[in-house]
Design a protein that fits this description.
This protein has 232 residues and is an alpha/beta fold. The protein is built from 6 helices and 11 strands.
Length: 232
Amino acid sequence: MKLKIGITDTASRYENYPAWIKGGSADIEIIRLSHSENNAHEVETCQGVVFSGGVDIHPKLYGRSDISYPGSPDKFDTKRDEFELEVFRQCRIHQKPVLGICRGMQLINVALGGSLYLDLETVGKEDHTRHGLTDGIHEVTLIKNTQLFEISKEICGTVNSAHHQAVNKIAPSLKISAYSPDRVAEAAEYTEPDGKHWLLLVQWHPERLHHNDPGNPLESEIRKAFLEVCKS
């Protein structure tokens, strides 16, 4: 029987996510979870769900009224926001493994009661954005005794970067498991995972890191761990 993995839809480079997750395997089927299809109910049939990157989440979801700020989109996709919040709710109900990537990390932090920086450079952080077709590159430091450290077996590593927002207040049920040199949260997971579904959130893009740095454990080992828990 094929492994079914749900991946939330995005208007930006969606095809990278299925290609990375499948890795050429005929035994993995991708379910495209999209507000246009209104198919959040299909989470129940999936063995795991990936939350993809994309446009900024509407600030009202974390208590901000600002909608015009450096890097803000011309138009927010509130239907996508609402749909993905429902997808995450279904993941929690049905105890589905979750991998959140970039916007996915931010959305889940917000869903669990956290907040975001509207723009990193505005609050004195480094430029983490993508320039043209080229992702930024920087180091990350992993926190020992975290799930991410156990998965990667790395205390530091190199990741790509294509975002201008990031976690500000971490959600009460989450802990940060990796930082950039300027102390931006680069990964998060449940503080107390017992009794909860498997969850890993990363601010970088492992689905693109795969092309530029194949074998990087912050790409390959994350994919492996996610698929292993989905199979189990």
